[in-house]
Amino acid sequence: MAVSSQVETVGSGASKAKVVAAGLLVIAGIAAFYLLAGQGGWVQWLALLVGLAAAALVFLWSNPGKDFVGYVKDSYNELKKVVWPTRPEAMKMTGYVFAFAIVLATFLWLTDLVVGWAIFDLLLGWRN
């Protein structure tokens, strides 16, 4: 029996450094938000958004970021292939689901009544 000897590498050192840099940029943006509390609200939010945008750009240049972009593109292409039901079809299927839920709930309620009656009244002789 032959075993495949292919090993998938996690990523290069540069890619890992980019991910770490992106994390540090997020932390820097959050720190700037709190450190600039005396400057006014719009300055705080601008510093936070700049830090997050820079982190996003650095992450997207890394291998995991490129993999993520590829995943999003593949997901969008698969979403375009979905055949969505028409409104009447969706309403009909919703009605079926509600009807089935009501029938099942009624069945379970009746089963509970019968089993309870059989155990407590017939077997144990208890009266409710």
From TrEMBL:
It is found in: Membrane. InterPro entries: SecE_bac (IPR005807), SecE_sf (IPR038379), Translocase_SecE/Sec61-g (IPR001901). Keywords: Cell membrane, Membrane, Protein transport, Translocation, Transmembrane, Transmembrane helix, Transport. GO terms for biological process: intracellular protein transmembrane transport; protein secretion; protein targeting; protein transport by the Sec complex. Its main location: membrane. Pfam families: SecE. The keyword Cell membrane applies. The chain crosses the membrane at residues 19-36, 42-61, 96-120. Essential subunit of the Sec protein translocation channel SecYEG. Clamps together the 2 halves of SecY. May contact the channel plug during translocation. Belongs to the SecE/SEC61-gamma family. This is Protein translocase subunit SecE. It comes from Lampropedia cohaerens.
